[in-house]
Structure formats: C-alpha cells, structure tokens
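Predict structure. Chain length: 409.
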Amino acid sequence: MKFRSVGVWAAFLAVHVLVAWLGWVYPSQPMGDVVLVYQPWSASALSGEAIVGITESWVYPQPALLPMLLTQLIAWPLTALAGTTGAYLIGWAVLITALDAVGFGALVGRTGSAARRSAGWFWTAALLLLGPIAMYRIDAVTVPLAVIGGCWLVKRPAIAALLLTVAAWIKIWPGALLVAAVVAVRSRVRILLVLLVVSVGIVAVLFLLGADQHLFGFLTEQTGRGLQIEAVAATPFMWMAVAGAASIDYSFEILTFQIGAPGVDVLAMLLTPIMALAALAVLALGAIKASRGASFARLFPPLALALVATLIVTNKVGSPQFQTWLIAPVILWIVFDRTRSALPAGIVLVLGGLTCLVYPLTYDGLLRAEMLPVLLLTARNALVIVLLIVAVRALVRVPVGRRAPRKRT
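Prediction complete.
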C-alpha cells in the first residue's frame, strides 16, 4: 500500500472515531434517533411485537429495518459492558464505520489514483465537518452503497444497479443516482432490468411477510407532513418566527418540528409537485445532452448532483442528515471529472460545516427562533440553492457532438 493511501485511510478511520465520540458530547442528542427510534423499532420486531413497515405503516422503506436489526446483533456482546442503550449506540457506530470502510476500499483501494485519493480526502473532510449527524442516521447506511455503485457504473453496471437499487429501498434518495445512470450510461437497459428484478423481488418478499397493506406506507406517510423548520422553503417563515409572527410546533406523529403560520399548509402541499416538475426538468436536460452524444464522465456527475440537490431544495422536510446525500455525487464527480469538481466539492464542505453549526450546536436556540441560529440556517439553505444552480450550470455546459474516450478511474 502506498504511503499516500495509508495517510488517507488513517485519516478516514480516525475521523470516524472522533465523529462517533462527538455524538456523545455534543448538545441536542445528535445520536438520539438511533436509541429513541431505531433501537425500539428493531427490538419490537425481534420480540414478536409490531414490525414497522409490515404490521404498521412506516416512514422508511421496509429494508431500512435490516441495518437496525443488524445493530442489535453487533450490540448484543457489548450489553454487559455498556448497557443496552450504550451498546446499541456503539454497535451502530461500528456498523457505519465498517460499511464506510468497505465503500472507502472500493473508492481508494490500496493504490488509488490521484483522483480517487482526492475523493477519499473529500469524504473524510465532509464527515468531519458534518459531524455526528453523518453517522447516527439511517442515511449513513446508503452513502457507501451509493459510492460503490456509482464507481462501478461503467465497468460493472449490473452490480452497480443492484447496490443503488438496494440503497434506494433503504432511503429513497439514491434513486436519483439510478435515474441519472439510466440517462448517462450506455448500458441503461441492463440497469433498468436489474432495477426491475431487484424491486420485484423485494416487493414479493414483503408480500410474503404480510406487508401488503403497508407496502408503500413510506410514501403515504409523507403526504400529510407539514413544513419542517429546516426546509429551504421554511426559511422566510423562520424569520417570521423570529419576529413572533409564526410558531414552531412539535409533531408527535412525525417526531419533528414544523412551522405554524398562515399559508404553510398550502406551500407544503405544493412542494411535492414542484419537486417532481423540477426533477423532470433536470432529467430532461440530461436526456437531451445524452441524446446528443455527451460522455458519461462529463454528464453523469452534474446530473446526479443536480437531481439530489433538487430533492433537498424542494423538500418540505429539511433534516440535517439530508446533507449526507450530497457526499456521494460529489465523490463521483471527483472520480470521473476531477478538473471541474472543485467548486461543488467546496460548497458541500461549507454546507457540512454550516449544518453542524445549526444541528446540533445551536439547535436549542433555533427552536426558540433566536436570530443567530436562524441566520446560520438561512446561509445553509441559500448555499444549497447555490449548489443546485452550480450543478445545473455545469449540466448545461456539458459538451455534446461526439463521445469523449472513456477515462480510466
């Protein structure tokens, strides 16, 4: 293993240890979801009680329960030493570190290219700046799957499609990378077939387990949600809350804080079709570029990032862990087109730092609608919009006419 690869590997693993520890010491319980919801959900399933997604509707696709169950297995030997709660938290951190290490191995390997090492350093920095939220959420499971799948799209398209499909069945966002791949990769028919076969297989298993009534509960559960305080569209209302003209209310059904103000419900209802239209517009632009001969290396990275950024900007939910979605497409941009990746990579790193300042570091003040955390949130949300514009601009500038030779990665 080359010394430079040893350095990035050491930094990557050290950052995981540091970030995992910060989850215990930062305010606002950044690892709260792991022990307050993941642990009870998995414990209930193991004890023969309610199984989320099977016997009752759930906000996540059903396969998202699998890493929560696996954490129970990892935590079991640690229970005597750390107690039930502590063991589960440690087990979750171990699981995410192991998954990330597998993804990092596929990315950097033992003697990775300069572009892949740069992508590895970016991933390390992004985790450090985003903080515990980058590890202590279910979204963290999907990031290494998306990285591996994206890296293998050209050489191993069937395996890549399998990984991205599984990731999308854990948390929906990797579906954006799948859609971008269908547009940008020549072997799109193979990717579509794998997507169809894997999805049909998952649905069949869920039917056999008795999930027919709650099969798509992760979609229907989202329709009635209000506007979350951290969503991009909620920014003006948060300033109204600072002035006392809007309220911050807790939803016990969704377990999140939402905005209460005139017009909020209508806006929340409109955001879903706006998201669909915006994503279709980005996808259409990518399809036009592909039909005119744009190369995969130039087309896929900005298309993937633009689609993911669209999901965040137009979302009525603005959870801080959404920023982890941006890590994989930027890593892939660095791998496939390093020369043009500096600006989006820099923006995502700043977004990670701002997000950590908002949650968990100043979150208590945000719930009180204090000016400083609302200002930090405003800057974060404005920068997400800037990132979307940067990605779309790069997509518009993708050259067409003839396919460039494939770049070795």
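Summary: The beta strands are 247-251, 256-260.
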